[in-house]
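Input record (one chain):
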Amino acid sequence: MAGLIQAAFNLGMNGAVAGLLTSVPALLRLLDIAAPRLAVRFGPVAIVVAGLTAVSAGRAPRTLAGSTPLLLATTVLARA
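The corresponding structure, as predicted from the sequence alone:
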């Protein structure tokens, strides 16, 4: 929790945006419902590779995020 408070302060976030940041992973879990169907259609290896690519693409720039929109966008990508 201390990390969120520090990040919110450093990026000038208000409470609503900080709350949105913490709820993104929970909202993305709703997409987990589609995973079995996607694996049947495209194959499990392709889905795992796509997921790892998305996580990697979101993690690297997230450490350099200097603005709230960039942090939120990379959070969504990293949690996909």
